Amino acid sequence: MLRAGVDLGGTKIQVAIVDADGNVIGQCRIPTPQDHGSAGVIDAMVQSVRDAMTDAKADMGTLLGVGVGAPGQIDHDAGTVSHAGNLPDWLGTVAVAGPMRTALGVPIELANDVQVGVMAESKLGAGRPYTSMLGVFCGTGVGGGIVVNDELWLGRGAAGEVGHMVVEPDGAPCPCGRRGCLEAYAGRAAMEAEARRRADKGKKTKLFEIMEKKGRTRLSSGVWAKALEKDDHMAVDLIDRAIWALGLACASAINLLDVEAVVIGGGLGCRLGTPFAERIRDEMKPHLILPEKEPQVLSAALGDLGGAMGAALRVEHTIPPVGDLGTVTDRDA
Amino acid sequence: MLRAGVDLGGTKIQVAIVDADGNVIGQCRIPTPQDHGSAGVIDAMVQSVRDAMTDAKADMGTLLGVGVGAPGQIDHDAGTVSHAGNLPDWLGTVAVAGPMRTALGVPIELANDVQVGVMAESKLGAGRPYTSMLGVFCGTGVGGGIVVNDELWLGRGAAGEVGHMVVEPDGAPCPCGRRGCLEAYAGRAAMEAEARRRADKGKKTKLFEIMEKKGRTRLSSGVWAKALEKDDHMAVDLIDRAIWALGLACASAINLLDVEAVVIGGGLGCRLGTPFAERIRDEMKPHLILPEKEPQVLSAALGDLGGAMGAALRVEHTIPPVGDLGTVTDRDA
Q1: Cys-Cys crosslink for B155: which of A43, B159, B272, B283, Cβ 3.0 to 4.6 Å?
Q2: pLDDT tens digits along B29-68
Q3: pTM, 2 dp
Q4: pLDDT at B87 over 90
Q5: CB within 8 Å: A253 and B251
Q6: Domains of chain A by start residue, with CATH
Q7: To probe the interface with A, which of B179, B240, B256 has the most A CB atoms within 10 Å?
C-alpha cells in the first residue's frame, strides 16, 4: 500500500508517493495556483496527488491515505488550515481535509509543514541514527522541531520555534515584530531586508544583480549561494552573521536539551549544505557547557522532498499499517 | 513502607522521610562535615537517615530505600559521585552508594541534585497540575530541568542547563568561564562577584554590611532579601538584572519547548518567592512568540525540602512500590 505526502507552500506544491519501505516511487511538483483562492489550491493538491500516483505507475486503489504539511495554524481534528499568510488568498479558516477526502476517497492527515519536515529528517533523513534531535530549518523564516524519544515534542502545540529564541537583546528587527530573534539574522526575509537597508545606504553588493539575472524578485537561496561563490562582500558578511546567530541559538538549545544531533534544513540550509552545518557547529562549540560532548551538526538529507515525505509519514498515525513502513516501523518497534 | 531522600549540599545535608502518600513524616538537617573528607560526609548522611527515621518514629525495618541527590557528575550504575567541587575534600570519583548500602542495608539511588529537585516540584510541588514544565533553580549557580510527558528529559545525561543559555553575546563573565550565560546574571556567585566589583569601584551598598551582621562570609539569599527590603540601590539593580536575564532565557526556552509551566526554585528563587516569579513572567512576555499562550510562571512550592523529597522519589525507579506512593503513582497510572 502507498502513502502520499503533500508539501503545501506559498510558491509550490510538492507531492511524494512513498512505498512500504519508505522509498519515494512517484512525484509531482507544480507552482501553487495564485488566482483561484483556497479552492484552487485544494483542487491543485488533489490533481497533484493523482499525477504523482500516475508517475508512480500505481492505481489509486493502492493509496492508503494522504498527509498534507501546510503553513499556518493547523486544526488536525477539524481538518482546517488558518492564518496561512503565505498561501494565496487564504482567508480565515479553510476546510482542507474534508474536500480532499471527498475527491480522493482516502483519509487526509493535516500537520504543520515544518514539523513534518523535521519528522522526515528524524525518521528517514540525517537524524535517522538518533533518537533525539533538534531540527533548524532556515528558509524565508527560521522554523524547527524537537525530537525526543523518537517522537516530535509538540508542547502545547507550538514547540520548536527555535527561530524566536533571542540571540541578542534589542538586536536586529525580526519579521515577527520583535527584536534580536534568531530569525532576524538567519531567515531569508530578514536577511534580504538587511541587504536592502545596506544597499540603500550605498553599500555595494552583487546580490540584487544576481537576483535580476535569475529572473527573481526576491533573494532566493540560489541567489545567496551564487553571491557567496562570487565572494560578494555583503553576502559573505550576512551569511557570517546568520551562522553566528545560529551557533548561539543552537548552543543555548543544546545546553538546555542535550539532544544527540542538530539537523540544519530549509531552503537556505539545504542549499548551503554541509559546509554551512560545519560552520554552525564550530560557532556553537565555544558556548557549549560540555564542549567535549558536542552534538552532531548535520545538513538535512532529504532536501526539497523532506516536507512531502514527512507529510506521508503522518498517514500511519491514524491507520494501522497493512505492510511495513520500512525503517519507520522498525524504529518504532 | 517509607522512603528516605537525602539532599547533599556543600553546606548542609537535608534528609526527608516520605510515606506512601508522599507526606514528609520525618526530617533531619545538619551542616555538611568539612573536616573528614568524603568518608566523613558519607558517615554523616548515614547517621542523618537514621536520625530522620527516629524523628519519624519509624523502625529502620520499614525503610524501602534511600535516594541521594548530589552535585557533580553522578554515575548511577556505578554508584559514584565525581567532580563535586562544592563538597569538602571530594577528590576524584567517590563511591557513595556501596558504603551507604552496607551501612543501612537498603538500596541506594544516586541522582543529580537539581534534577531531583525539579522532579519533586513536578510530582509533588508547584508543577503538579502540569505534565510538562521547565524548572529554573537559582542558587549559587542556575540549574534546571525539563519535564515532558511527566518525565524528566535527561538528553544524553546533561539536559536542563538553562543557566548556560546565552542571554547576551560577550556579556557578563560566568563562573563557567564563558560570557553572557544566564548564570552570569542570575546565579548568586556571579551576582556577588559583580557586587564586589561595583563596591571596589566605590559604589555604595548595604549588602556587605548586612552579610557581616548575619555572620556570613557570602551574600546568601537571606542577605539579598534583606537588602531588597532596605531598598539598597545596588541590590535592587542586580536583582532587576537577574530578572531581565531570567525573562529572556525563559522566553527563549518557552518558544522552543512550549511547556505548560515554569517553576522558579533554588535558594534565591524560593527566598524571593512569588513576586520574583511574577516579575520574571512579566519580563518574559514581550519575547514570547505566542504571548496569548503564556505559560504559568510559579514559585517552587516545596522550598528547602524539595531536593530531599525528590531524592526520595528516585527510590521507586528500581523497587516496585509495595503500597501506593500517593500522587506519584496516581499520575504515573
Answers
A1: B159
A2: 999 998 999 999 999 999 999 999 999 999 999 999 999 9
A3: 0.90
A4: no
A5: no
A6: 2-117+305-332 (3.30.420.40), 131-301 (3.30.420.40)
A7: B256
Of A183, A28, A320, the closest CA to residue A193 belongs to: A183
Give the best residue of B165, B168, B254, B293 to mutate against chain A (max A CB count within 10 A): B165
With beta carbons less than 8 A apart as the criterion, state whether B290 and A164 touch. no
* Chains A–B, number of C-beta pairs less than 8 Å apart: 108
> What is the torsion angle, in degrees rounded to the nearest 10, for the CA atoms of residue A301, residue A306, residue A311 and residue A312?
-70
Torsion of CA B174, B177, B180, B183, to 10 degrees: -30
Q: Angle at the Cα of A263 (from A258 to A269), degrees rounded to 5?
A: 140
SS (H, E, C) A162-194: HHHCECCCCCCECCCCCECECHHHHCHHHHHHH
3-state secondary structure of A80: strand
A215 Cβ contact partners less than 8 Å away, ≥ 6 residues apart: none
Query: A19-37: per-residue pLDDT in tens?
Result: 988 899 999 999 999 899 9
Nearest to A108 by CA among A151, A138, A143, A70: A70
- Which residues of chain B from 284 to 303 reach within 8 Å of chain A, CB to CB? 286-287, 289-290, 293
Q: Which pLDDT score, from 0 to 100, does residue A92 have?
A: 87
Q: A166 touching B, CB under 8 A? A: yes
Cell of A38: 483556497
- Taking CA atoms, what residue in B is nearest to A180? B287
Report the complex ipTM: 0.90
d(CA A152, CA A145): 7
pLDDT per residue as tens digits for the range B216-239? 999 999 999 999 999 999 999 999
pLDDT of res. B280: 98
Contact criterion met (CB < 8 Å) for A257 and B178? no
In angstroms, the separation between the Cα of residue A156 and the nearest Cα of chain B is 6
| pLDDT tens digits, B261-280 | 999 999 999 999 999 999 99
DSSP alpha helix (H) spans, chain A = 37-55, 97-104, 113-124, 183-186, 188-200, 207-213, 221-229, 233-257, 266-284, 306-313, 326-332
Local confidence band at B317 (pLDDT 50, 70, 90 cut-offs)? low
Distance, in Å, from the CA atom of B87 to the CA atom of A222, rounded to the nearest integer, reads: 56
CA distance linking residue A168 with residue A164, whole number of Å:
11
Q: What percent of chain A has pLDDT over 90?
A: 85
Phi, then psi, of B95 in degrees rounded to 5: -75, 125
Show Cβ contacts of residue A21 under 8 Å, excluding neighbours closer than 6 positions: A324, A325, A326
